Amino acid sequence: MPLQRPAASNMPGSAPAATPEIPPFADCPRSQYATGHQDWYMISGPQQFPNFDICLTCFDTSIKPTAYARFFSRSPPKPETMATQCDFSNLWVHIAWVWLFSQSAPDASLLGMIAAIQVPEGPCPNSQAEQAGEKPTATRRWFCLPNPRTGALIEDLTICSHCIAHIETILPPMRGVFGAAAGGASCPATCDLMVPNSQRSLSYIDQIVEVAERTLKTGYLDLTPAAEYIEKYALLPECPKNNTVKNVGCYSMPSSVPEFTVCQECYTEVILSEVRNEAPLARQVSTAPSIPPDGFSCQLYSPRTRQFWQDSLTTGDAGLLRQKVTERKQKQMELTQKADQLTLTYHQQKMQAKYHNEMMLIEASTAMHSALTWQATTGVIRPTDFTAVNASRNQGSQMEVQAAVTLSQIQMIENEWKNFWE
Ligand SMILES: [Zn+2]
Ligand SMILES: [Zn+2]
Ligand SMILES: [Zn+2]
């Protein structure tokens, strides 16, 4: 589950969470529409949702170990030509599933209701996004959270009607809370929820879920924390993490640790309070973001680098921070270079395996043709000579084995980065 939620016991005035443990979400193998599968599960009680399709992997991983499993059963066979997608791979369904547990819902009907949602303006424009972080612009009605201090809508965060319908279905306390921007008129904007691979998008959803949870606990709708979060972050570009971005401003420590480049989001989250406390190390950080000509990647998104920053802050030692940041950068370059080289080798090995497999088919056809021609011209049947076919098959299999070894080497490098350096 990518959704990040603080423990309920951290919420002001709340009792420790009594939510039963939720099994993990699987990496769903049927998240795209495809034909040819007959082994689906559906919601069968108390209300039937025969069009809510769940693949075996998702059912076995997430649903079977829970008390809700009794509301699901195998679906009747589908027509051979019907393309089907696993509805349990949808992020809104994940959010609804977690909500069911947190509210001890009596059954799983909410999931079927979520999958059936349709709005006149069509799906969220982000469903058309082709890459991570992309938010396609669309002209339609938009909704915003009101600022509880002023009552005005916070228009820095816009949400489409499709996402609003999901929020209001999953989280009853949020019904009617969002206001229509531009007086309800259609206008061009982007949806800030359901952005592919966006941590920020998940954080916004978390904020909204927390408002709903607090409202149910206290009986009082308090939008202040969510509004403050949106006002603090909505105008800042999302942290690029390890990816190099251009034409985006970043902070650094130009005189002492120039390698330490920090995005505006991480600066606001980690460094800003230390600047206000006038910590000596924080005073060395640039006072305004600047745009490096070759772009930058953020150094401060990882918990490891945040710990380096914290250690250096305690000792006031910028040299320690520089040493750690430089070591990490060098290792990153070294591992990236190795992984790039191995990826190239892997693609070459896969291409060679494909070539040998294609050759094997051609050799088989030639061998059969040659045997038949011999038989037709001499009237004598002789065994088909599969020597060349077997040679190509062996070469193809050897290449597949080598490619698998290369892939495992790439994975080892990725693990080394994640476990010891990132
Ligand atoms: Zn699935
Ligand atoms: Zn949306
Ligand atoms: Zn960052």
Give the % helix: 40-55%
Largest sheet: 3 strands, antiparallel
Order of helices and strands: EEHEHHEEEHEEHHEEHHHH
Structural class of the helix and strand makeup? mainly alpha
Query: What number is the mean pLDDT?
Result: 91
Q: Helices, strands, pairings?
A:
Blueprint: E1 41-43, E2 49-54, H1 56-63, E3 72-74, H2 91-102, H3 109-115, E4 138-140, E5 142-144, E6 159-160, H4 161-170, E7 179-180, E8 187-189, H5 199-218, H6 224-233, E9 250-253, E10 257-263, H7 264-276, H8 303-315, H9 318-378, H10 387-421
Antiparallel strand pairs: 1-2, 1-3, 4-8, 5-6, 5-7, 9-10
Helix pairs in contact: 2-3, 5-6, 8-9, 9-10
One zinc ion (ZN) binds next to helix 7.
Your description of this structure?
The chain has 422 residues and is mainly alpha-helical. It folds into four domains: 1-116, no CATH class; 119-235, no CATH class; 250-316, no CATH class; 325-421. 45% of the residues lie in helices and 9% in strands. It contains ten helices and ten strands. The protein has helices spanning 56-63, 91-102, 109-115, 161-170, 199-218, 224-233, 264-276, 303-315, 318-378, 387-421; strands spanning 41-43, 49-54, 72-74, 138-140, 142-144, 159-160, 179-180, 187-189, 250-253, 257-263. The strands form four sheets. It has a three-stranded antiparallel beta sheet. Strands 6-5-7 form a three-stranded antiparallel beta sheet. α9 (318-378) packs antiparallel against α10 (387-421). The longest helix has 61 residues, at 318-378. It is globular. It starts with 40 loop residues before the first strand and ends with a helix. The relative contact order is 0.07. Residues 1-18 have low confidence and may be disordered. Bound molecules: zinc ion (ZN) (3 copies). One zinc ion is lined by residues 124, 126, 159-160, 162-163, 191, 193-194.
